[in-house]
Amino acid sequence: MLMSPMPADRSRNNIDFRAANGRRHFIGRKGDMEIKVDTRPFAKIETDALVTYAFEQEKTVDSGAMALDAVTGDAISKLTASGELTGKFLEATLLHYPQGLAAHRLLILGAGKKEKFGTVEARRLAGAAVRTLKAKQVKSLAFLVREGERSEEIAQAIVEGLIVANFDSDKYKTDKKPGNEIISAAIAGWDESSCADADRGIERGRLIGESQNFARELGNEPANLMTPRILASRAEAMAREAGLAVDILDEKKIEELKMGALLSVAQGSVEPPRLIVITYTPEKLRPNAPVLGLVGKAITFDTGGISIKPANDMEKMKYDMCGGAAMLGAMRAIARLKPSCKVIAVVPSSENMPGGRAQKPGDVQIAMSGKSIEVINTDAEGRLVLADAVTYAKQLGCTHLVDAATLTGAVVVALSNVNVGVFGTDQAFTDQLLASSKVAGEKMWPLPMDDEYREMIKSGIADIQNVGTGKGGGATVGAMFIREFAGDTPWIHLDIAGTAWQDDVKPWAAKGATGVGVRTLVDLAMKFGADGNSAKPTK
Ligand code: BES
Ligand code: ZN
Ligand code: ZN
User: What average pLDDT does the structure give for the chain?
Assistant: First the structure.
């Protein structure tokens, strides 16, 4: 076990650290948090802050809390008696130089009702600990997990929470305080015998948390610094570093492939489009094994085109590439976690601009699949770029598809910024994704796709039109359009328009791009193909 904290300058270099006993404690890039398991008795852990949690209406204090109470001279029971510590979820009580502890501070977080406690709560508590402490210039912490809660899953969730919370969108601030972040963290409470579980959880949590932050970083970039070409080069660099195959299709190749829908969106801009294709192939690939396709909308700026958007809030349309960013983030983690199935990410990227060559409402475009589309509203561009990306993903051999897109304002009306809207054509596959979203702590809610909605995208002069004729149901209409291109291939559409961006800071995360989807898709990929039901289409 590594006992002394890593010197700050070393822990921030691009090095693989190995402790004296050979166990790996830290592999990371500059700025990453060092995270280890610390099996010492909690009272002996030297750290800037020991973090633990207390449940609401805790009648019988369990042995962990009782031990902490005894060591600290009844600090916890005194706080409870005074009414200051109630255990309400995310309530924070900070003690300085607590009696009996080697730690300089003790942070007690409210954990809510004990029977409701799980990975979702642990992830948020760990995040809240980081954000509370880093605001006070604290550099190291140890998160003490209570008895009965020491599993690999909890360790993973805590580490995801720590890493995601340590990220701030202050890249372009010139007056930021240097090093306002947690440099090293430990998870405590495990003993030598269960340490391997914790280590696995830490490793997985680190990869997923960092990959979510990678997606957030892309989503936060302003559109002048995140064009389709820049996104493609960032994706290419990520893929090369991760050892993934990458193919960037430029405007010429896109034209050769007759991707008329994608090109129609790009034609109003001086910036050329890109189609990013990244492939993960497992070492042992079974013949006829299912192939998971991850398709992500990456409009680097959506003005609406000729159907131009109002100025109010238009600046936010830089995050219209968060579906693509989520797929790239997921691939970054998948490359290292090595699921048993093949995964292909297809990310169509373009600007949606009202230039002199821009498409006009009423124009008819021919998609790669051969279907004709009447473009009634140039602001419904996401479904156009996805149409060709979905067709291409099928051509590449994907047997199952998931797309993620900031597709409609209507999903924000339906589900606000709480749930991702889920549409699926294959119940077993959709159930699998919903189960993964629960594990990942990313809220998702299924929405309908009845045949009646299909009527709404019938066009007078083409096969289909890109907006609905009837009233309402905007999120479903968007999904119905993409479904035309998915056809019989089991497919799920995730509308993340409401959840990909956070206007306000949360106790566990900075404002800005959320990286929603990364954790769910990684969990799905890890389980996909492992059981029988996804090995064959279940239509
Ligand atoms: N990028 C927008 C959707 C969006 C809205 C994302 C709010 C994030 C927050 C999308 O391209 C769009 O403009 N959709 C239109 C579709 C309509 C014209 C049918 C919409 O939702 O208004
Ligand atoms: Zn739009
Ligand atoms: Zn858009």
Answer: 91
The ligand whose atoms approach the alpha carbon of 316 most closely is: 1
Mean pLDDT of the 193-201 span: 92
- Cα(399) to ligand 2 centroid in Å equals 28
Token duo for residue 493: 């559409």
Instruction: Give the residues surrounding ligand 1 with Cβ less than 6 Å away.
Output: 302, 320, 377, 379-382, 406-410, 412, 467, 474, 497
> 533 or 329: whose pLDDT is higher?
329
Contacts 24+ apart (CB under 8 A), 64-73: 64/144, 64/146, 64/147, 64/189, 65/146, 67/42, 68/42, 68/144, 71/42, 71/43, 71/99, 71/100, 71/101, 72/98, 72/99, 72/100, 72/101, 72/106, 73/99, 73/100
Residues with CB under 5 A from ligand 3 (ion): 299, 302, 320, 382
Better-scored residue on pLDDT, 324 or 57: 324
Q: What is the pTM of this model?
A: 0.93
What the chain holds in terms of domains, given with CATH numbers, is 9-209 (3.40.220.10), 221-531 (3.40.630.10)
**Closest-lying ligand 1 atom to the alpha carbon of residue 406:** 6
Contact indicator for 520, 441 with CB cutoff of 8 Å: no
Q: What is the pLDDT of residues 435-457, one digit of tens each?
A: 999 999 999 999 999 999 999 99
Predicted local confidence at residue 11, as pLDDT:
33
Question: Could you list the active site residues?
Answer: 309, 383
